[in-house]
């Protein structure tokens, strides 16, 4: 008669050692998974104010009593895609929302410019190839007593459409090499020159253009594939840098054009916002400023945008008044 082998007792040293090994391995695997989720997949948006502080004293008194037309031009960032009603950067520039943060109550253009009109002509999904046509078709020539205050974002969609789902081409160059994109970058420079000239022609009473440069949701890493939804693009940072350099070169030719530092402000608030070992980590606000589509800001991102536009506009407020002597209060 065959004997049934005895089962090891739960108190057996060999079984206890095996159980400890299983628990240790399993615990380590769970810990590593949680670490990966925290640093690579968890993108908290945070709450409260976002972006740099704005000096409220610049907005305490009117700058001028002349008529100023605030115009929004460009793509979905200026159109406010992804923002709650009244919380796009364009809307917040003009007037404070009902739930404004305490430190920015009264810090808006409608307070500094009592005769402020507004018109947002930006179109979500548009690229810079379309923006010159939009200006020609939609922005009418103004009376000589109207000063144009233009805020715009242009060029971002030139880079990302259509996320590599089609071969790279001008206006949709995702996946292109820098060499392949160079003629398109040169065309972008020429197009910007024409855009700025066309805007100026429509404001015989003068204008000031504030244009944001292009941000980098990869926080300087250049790995869109880490989102798990985008294909790799080895030359993406080189092309973003080249586009921003083109914008700055063209803006330097036009004294009425001012570049708003969107790119540098948003570093550390993209898909790597939780990685404290990266150089752009923001210890004070390690949160994600982008909307679900990765290409537009969320509400906190739009707050940050509003702040850097307010700061840049305030630096040049004497231009809006006509000249420094026409400011209603000293700078």
Q: What does this entry look like structurally?
A:
The protein is built from eleven helices and five strands; from the N terminus they run H-E-H-H-H-E-H-E-H-H-E-H-E-H-H-H. It has helices at 13-41, 76-79, 89-94, 109-112, 128-138, 156-160, 178-201, 236-252, 262-266, 299-315, 317-321, and strands at 67-74, 116-120, 146-153, 207-212, 257-260. Strands 2-1-3-4-5 form a five-stranded parallel beta sheet, with helices on both faces. Helix 7 runs parallel beside helix 8. The chain is globular. The N and C termini lie far apart (105 Å). The model is unreliable at 324-331 (pLDDT under 50).
Care to give the gist of this entry?
Helix content is 38%, strand content 9%. By secondary structure, it is α/β, with parallel strands linked by helices.
Write the layout of secondary structure elements.
Blueprint lengths: L12 H29 L25 E8 L1 H4 L9 H6 L14 H4 L3 E5 L7 H11 L7 E8 L2 H5 L17 H24 L5 E6 L23 H17 L4 E4 L1 H5 L32 H17 L1 H5 L10
Helix pairs in contact: 5-7, 7-8
User: What is the number of helices?
Assistant: 11
Protein structure class: alpha/beta
Q: Which blocks of ≥5 consecutive residues have pLDDT under 50?
A: 324-331
Computed CA radius of gyration, to the nearest angstrom = 26 Å
